[in-house]
Design goal:
Number of strands: 6
Distance between the termini: 98 Å
CATH class of the largest domain: Mainly Beta
Helix content: 25-40%
Largest sheet: 3 strands, antiparallel
Strand content: 35-45%
Number of domains: 2
CATH topology of the largest domain: Immunoglobulin-like
Radius of gyration: 34 Å
Order of helices and strands: HHEEEEHEE
Number of helices: 3
């Protein structure tokens, strides 16, 4: 009596693949899919809330008008600031030499404005800052402006 060689019999393709690579992964169930959709919706709602709240906070913008040198160690910088009239802002003003090195720096505080203090109902006001410099400046600009948190 002869017996068949078990290695010579062909196994079904799905069985041999399962033996080689493991069984097929199960698809997500209905409950898991629903939980994933809910989690994604909560993340999207949170992001929308964050974007809405961050854009509604007070903002400030500025525009350089010009500068004039009084002497080699002092100059005045003229600029406009647009902000909520009730807010207090600070602006960093810098003076630079011919090699763009900063030779003067000052932070100017701009307090609340009266509605008739400037253009746009007091939102835009003209400002002048006097800067002392280490050497002769050939340029002066507003570097940045920000709203000061009044709760601190």
């Amino acid at each position: 009596m002869t017996s068949e060689d078990p290695s010579g019999t062909a196994l079904p393709a799905t069985t041999s693949l399962a033996n080689r690579y493991g069984s097929q992964k199960r698809a997500f169930g209905g409950k898991t899919k629903r939980n994933i959709v809910i989690a994604v919706l909560l993340v999207v709602i949170g992001l929308l809330f964050w974007v809405t709240m961050s854009s509604s906070q007070s903002s400030v913008s500025f525009k350089d008008i010009g500068y004039s040198a009084t002497d080699a160690t002092q100059l005045s910088v003229d600029f406009q600031v647009t902000k909520n009239p009730d807010a207090t802002a600070k602006c960093a003003v810098k003076a630079m030499d011919s090699k763009f090195a900063v030779v003067g720096w000052k932070v100017v505080e701009i307090g609340p404005n009266a509605p008739k203090a400037g253009a746009d109902g007091g939102q835009t006001t003209a400002q002048r800052a006097i800067l002392r410099t280490e050497s002769e400046a050939v340029s002066a600009v507003v570097d940045n402006c920000w709203i000061v948190d009044s709760s601190k």
